[in-house]
Design brief:
Strand order of the largest sheet: 1-2-6-5-4-3-7-8-9
Largest sheet: 9 strands, mixed
Number of helices: 13
Shape: elongated
Mean pLDDT: 95
Distance between the termini: 35 Å
Structural class: alpha/beta
Strand content: 5-15%
């Protein structure tokens, strides 16, 4: 049986992780009737069955419905769900969105990099996105630094962009990107697997990054340090069979050391948008 989106949302609010909900959904796909709460917790691998059952039963359905209906959503069962995400490890079971869902059907490329950027890093990303000629939808995480640079560059060049955020759609993080996020929610697309009001918790951002990489045919990385979140995102993308394009940088300050490491590991060194289009021309 197919589980309704609100029921998926309710399981997550009651404390199940995305991966745990996936286990429950896999069980339900066997055309079995929906099991009881204790059995759901057991199938999911919940650490405390009693805690999950108690929290689920204490939920206020009316208030939860109001929260759930604040934004449209997309579940893993919907025909509009991106095929690319079905291919990754731990695909998000539920995505809330604002904007143009049609962008999910277009060829997409992710841009990741440092929050604290140099002028050269910003100009490099702006140059490459301009040279891509709006052939690809730009996907990034709406963080400050390289993320915001990528979104703004796409918009300025008349292209389309998708932001994947680590908060609820009604939360602006960082505050400095509030106008950008509002504009993208109206004219482009914002995605989040977190419900309304969800704060920017630290573990949300690695989870968000798997969606950014998973949505796209390839990832561009700029000014990533070693052991940075951007480096981890790119390594995961390579494991998932995505192309990774690294913009080289200064070898003295360590700000691009992650990019140089990725190049040594097989990522493609790029200095222009045409480098990327040439590599992807048989995949677009």
């Amino acid at each position: 049986m197919t589980m309704e989106k609100f029921e998926i949302f309710k399981l997550k609010v009651a404390g199940l992780s995305n991966e745990q909900v996936l286990r429950v959904l896999h069980y339900c796909r066997k055309d079995e009737p929906l099991p009881g709460l204790e059995e759901i917790a057991r199938i999911a691998g919940s650490r405390s069955i009693i805690h999950f059952v108690d929290k689920y039963r204490q939920l206020d359905d009316d208030r939860l419905h109001k929260d759930f209906e604040r934004f449209p959503s997309l579940s893993i069962f919907d025909p509009e769900y991106p095929e690319e995400l079905l291919q990754i490890y731990n695909p998000p079971v539920l995505l809330f969105y604002q904007g143009d869902l049609e962008l999910l059907t277009k060829p997409k490329i992710a841009v990741v990099g440092a929050r604290e950027t140099t002028r050269e890093g910003v100009r490099s990303v702006e140059k490459i996105i301009k040279e891509l000629g709006n052939e690809l939808v730009i996907v990034s995480g709406l963080a400050k630094g390289i993320d915001a640079t990528a979104h703004y560059a796409s918009i300025r060049n008349g292209g389309k962009t998708i932001g994947v955020i680590g908060t609820g759609l009604d939360v602006f993080y960082p505050k400095s990107n509030q106008r950008l996020q509002a504009h993208m929610g109206e004219h482009h697309l914002i995605l989040s697997e977190y419900g309304p009001g969800q704060a920017p918790l630290k573990f949300h951002f690695p989870e968000r990054n798997r969606i950014i990489a998973g949505l796209c045919q390839a990832v561009i990385v700029a000014e990533a340090r070693l052991r940075s979140g951007s480096l981890i995102t790119c390594e995961r993308a390579m494991e998932e069979g995505r192309d990774v394009f690294a913009i080289p940088g200064n070898i003295l300050d360590g700000k691009s050391a992650g990019c140089h490491h990725l190049i040594q590991e097989g990522a493609k060194l790029v200095t222009s948008g045409q480098d990327i289009l040439d590599e992807l021309k048989y995949k677009l």
